[in-house]
UniProtKB/TrEMBL annotation:
Listed PROSITE patterns: HTH_RPIR (PS51071), SIS (PS51464)
UniProt xrefs under InterPro entries: Homeodomain-like_sf, HTH_RpiR, RpiR-like, RpiR-like_SIS, SIS_dom, SIS_dom_sf, WH-like_DNA-bd_sf
Record-given protein name: MurR/RpiR family transcriptional regulator
Superkingdom of the source species: Bacteria
Pfam families from the UniProt entry: HTH_6, SIS
SIS domain boundaries: 123-265
Alphabetic keyword roster: DNA-binding, Transcription, Transcription regulation
Length: 287
């Protein structure tokens, strides 16, 4: 098994520091692993000893031994005929539309490599908790992702809502958060200060946090219980939200399967209520 495969495989036994290191290594693979212990620790926002302990858990006696194995894998990959063919094939394409779609497919592939399966499972498990209240928060450009997720959550489970960043004049909003709350946050690069501040304050109140962010990671990643990373680069001058949308839809699919009959019963009840509302509106129109 390669180092990258070990990182992608993940484990429920990983500490929060381990998860941050894994995400940094996968987000900038293999470059991050070729820097010093201190550099990797700083980018992962963990301590130097945390990095050393992590590579030992991967099966290496020391950080230099880890780097030696990583360099061997990089050398093998760089001389791979498949890699050479892939580069040549991409450089000769003149189809802009096709290139963009190829880029989209590449973003989705990279997302699969960036995120250990355990992060996805943790997020689905948190959202499936019937005793928690779910609040979904997005920034200026990711607000629509937050709203889209909440629309689906509302069909599958009770007690969900979207919120805006909490303003200084709204202390009552902050006071209402506690240990039964789960905050789902969308925060991509050019991270939004009021979104970050809201997450930090809500966390201090005891709430859990699930985060959708990019490979460079919002500062919220330090306090999140689960994070999904989405590559955002595209041929356009604008960052792509394609992977973020795919990830939230994957979470919805996983949650639907996890809730099973309970979700089906809720959707049926909501359909009946919608029918009652339509019938009442028709009667009002006739009057």
């Amino acid at each position: 098994m390669t180092i990258k495969e070990k990182l992608i495989q993940g484990s429920d036994s990983l500490t929060k520091a381990d998860k941050l290191i894994v995400q940094e290594l996968l987000a900038n693979y293999p470059t991050s692993g070729l820097s010093t212990v201190s550099d990797l620790a700083a980018r992962s926002r963990v301590s130097d000893p945390s990095v050393v302990r992590f590579v030992r858990r991967l099966g290496f006696d020391s950080y230099p031994a880890f780097q030696k194995a990583l360099l061997a894998e990089v050398d093998e990959r760089m001389n791979s005929p498949l890699s050479m063919f892939d580069k040549a094939n991409r450089s000769t394409s003149n189809d802009s539309f096709g290139q963009y779609l190829d880029g989209c497919a590449d973003l989705l592939r990279r997302a699969g490599e960036l995120n250990p399966p355990g992060e996805y499972e943790r997020m689905v498990t948190a959202l499936a908790d019937p005793d928690c209240r779910v609040s979904v928060l997005g920034g200026r450009y990711s607000r629509y992702l937050a709203g889209y997720l909440n629309q689906h959550l509302g069909m599958l489970r009770a007690d969900t809502r979207t919120i805006d960043p909490i303003a200084p004049e709204e202390p009552h909003m902050l006071e209402a958060f506690g240990r039964r709350d789960l905050l789902v946050v969308f925060d991509y690069r050019r991270y939004q200060a009021d979104v970050i501040r809201t997450a930090e304050l809500v966390r201090k109140r005891g709430a859990r946090i699930c985060l959708f962010t990019d490979p460079w990671r919002s500062p919220i990643a330090r306090i999140a219980d689960a994070s999904l990373l989405a590559p955002v680069e595209s041929l356009s001058p604008f960052d792509s939200t394609l992977v973020g949308m795919a990830q939230l839809e994957a979470v919805v699919a996983g949650l639907t399967a996890r809730l099973g009959a309970a979700a089906e019963a809720r959707m049926q009840a909501l359909e009946e209520l919608a029918g009652d509302l339509r019938a009442g509106k028709e009667r009002d129109g006739d009057g």
